[in-house]
Each structure stands twice: as C-alpha cells, then as structure tokens.
Amino acid sequence: MKRVFLCAFQSPHTHPVPSYSFWRPYFKSGFEEAGWEVVEPVNLDLAEPLLYMEQPGGIKKWQEQTWPELLLQLKTQHKKRPVDLFFAYFYGVHARKEHIEAIRDMGVPMAHFFCDNLRDFHAVQSIVGCFDLHWVPEKLALEKYTERGANAIYMPMAINSLPAVNSTVLEKPEIAFVGSADWCRVSMFSELNDSGLPLAIYGNGWVDNPAEKNSDILALNRRWLVSVKQHLKRIYQQGLTGECRYFKTRNWRNGLAEKLSNISRYPAPPDIDYLNILRNSMVCLGINRYPNFSFPVHHQPAYSRLRDVEAPMAGACYLTESTPEISDMYDIGKEIEVYSGVDELITKAERLLADNQLRKTLRQCGQKAAKSKHTLTRRIETIEKTMGL
C-alpha cells in the first residue's frame, strides 16, 4: 500500500478563517478511497499561517517553530516505511523554498494543490515551481504555472462518491442556488427578480439585515489603517481602474430585499440538508462568475467550482454558468446544461422546468459522468501516473 504524508490545514485549534477545515477530510478520504495509507503531521497547526495572509509579521516565528518538527516527523515516517508522496495544500506563507528542498533531499516526491488560482495566485506564487507536480484545477491558470517553469497539470475539481439519488425523488418546485452573497451574485439575481422563475437562494448574507451590514462596513472604513491597506492592495493587484470599479459596487447590499423581492431567500443550510437541496430541487443552479475588478463590472470572469462536480454527483438536474473548463468535464445538453448570461439562463431554466424527461436524463447522465470521471480517485490515479509512482 502506498503512503502519502498529507498536509492540508490540520490544526488542534479552531481559527476564524472560512472553509479551511473542509480540506483535510476531503483529501484524506480521497486518498484512502484510492487505496493509500494516509500519514498526517501530529500536534502541528498548519492552519495558523492563514491568519498571517494580511499580517505576515507572525509567519517567521511560525515557520521557525513548525518546520523543524514537520521535517522530523516526515523523516521518521519515511525511515519507518518509505513515504511515496508528500502532498500539500499550501499557500506561499506556509513554506520557503529551502523547506521544500529539504523534503526533496529526503527523496520523497512532492505534489501541491491550490485552488482559486485565478483570484489569489499572488498568495501562492512564491512556491510555484518548488514541487515536483502542481495540480491546477482552473484551466486558464495553468499558464501562470508553466510560464514560471513549474511542472503543472490541469485537472478539474473532483469529489468522493456520494449516495445515489432515489429514482423516485419528489422534486421541489424551485430552482435552487446554494452559496453566499457577493455583489456578482446579487447583480445577477437582481436581473432575474422579475423573470417569473421559482428561484430559491440558500446561503450566508442573503437574509441578513442590510442596515446592520452597512453599519459593519462603515465601522470597518473608520479603521483607516486597515482600509488604506486594502485599497493599496487592490490598486497594486488590479490598478486604478479596478479601484474605481470597486467603489461602484461597494454598497451592493443596499436595498437587497427590494432587489430580490420576488426570490425566496434562506440562511445557509446545515450540512445534512445540503445535498438534499441540490438533488431535490427541480433545477439546481450554478454560478461560476467571481468578483474581479480587473474586468468590467458587467463582464466578470468565471471558472468551474467544486459545485460543478457535487451537484451532478448528487443526481441534480444541473444548470450552471459556462466556463473554460465545463465542456471538458461534461457532454453539454446530455449530462448537464449551461448558460452564458441571464437571457440564456431564463430560456434554459424554463425549458427544464417544463420537460420532466429532460430533467430525468440530466440527473441520470450527469451523475454517471461525475462518478466515472470526476472522483478524487481518478485525480489521484492521474497524479500517480504523471509522477511515475
């Protein structure tokens, strides 16, 4: 049995950082499902560096305390029985090049994963090229790696197998979207408000008190030092034009209830209800655009998310936003449906609501495609083959 030393934000503490705790069980179960023994660092806090993304002063101390012990644990495990792969989800703050070179000196092959490359490549670029292989889940981000001489492979997101959908599922008469609010999504849904579609949104930020949120924003702006740093960072990354676009959208929460008056909105569902919402809605909606002030406000870029695998895997009738990756992943029109823009979304959603057989076909074929092509086992097998493990 092959052994992998997995570093994916393991921590004995709980940190006020969104979503980091998702990745450790995600990769651990994926490697185990692929037949690997998973070895993990013990009593080390690999999530703490996320606290220093905006305040890098503490990262030097963390590296000095953590890396000697991490290397010792890896060396001990490798001596006990060879470690076939060091697999890490690291940001640039996690490691310096000499840390990664120390792993190479042990003779342990190294692979690296990072998502959100299109939004946050600056947060990882200091270690790009240090690993033997980089897994890049966004198609358009691959060039960022290869132009820096990195050995990188584009593979879309994947997920472990989920329970099969009951063929007699009782559909709920809604088009459901699950996800938090941002100005891109609010802008799109405001255009859909008078469409007549039975839209339902589940997620953080959709039913909060806008006045309370605006108060929070004003309080943040009064902390002028934090605000100045954020503005300077945005200007550095996206230019003065991007900063101007930010100011055009900064009050997007104003009048949220009025903008979405015809759309049902709910808090984020518990994990136990999440898959049921995806698969029991008549149509499950995906939105892949993301806020990027380098682009015009009404022409935001998009890339495929984990939802583009989760929803079909769960057996949803899935209608998602077109991306550069999506046609590589599915047979469009047979396994899932896609849209580009609000008008096409309305047209295809109305067609799906009216066609019971088409929804059934998308549910069955989409789930079959996801289970055969987009499991973590498949991705890990590709890593093995690419690295000659």
Structure description:
The N and C termini lie close together (12 Å). Strand 7, helix 6 and strand 8 form a beta-alpha-beta unit. The model is unreliable at 209-226 (pLDDT under 50). This protein is α/β, with parallel strands linked by helices and 389 residues long. It has helices spanning 23-33, 59-80, 97-105, 117-120, 142-146, 183-192, 210-222, 224-249, 256-259, 271-280, 307-314, 326-329, 342-354, 356-373, 376-387, and strands spanning 3-7, 37-39, 85-89, 110-113, 133-136, 152-154, 172-178, 199-202, 264-266, 281-285, 318-321, 337-339. Helix 10 (271-280) packs across helix 11 and helix 11 (307-314) crosses helix 14. The radius of gyration is 22 Å and the shape is globular. The protein has a six-stranded parallel sheet with strand order 2-1-3-4-5-6. A six-stranded parallel sheet has the order 9-8-7-10-11-12, sandwiched between helices. Helices cover 43% and strands 13% of the residues. It has two domains: 3-155 and 375-387, Glycogen Phosphorylase B (Rossmann fold, 3-Layer(aba) Sandwich); 172-211 and 254-373, 3-Layer(aba) Sandwich (Rossmann fold), CATH 3.40.50.
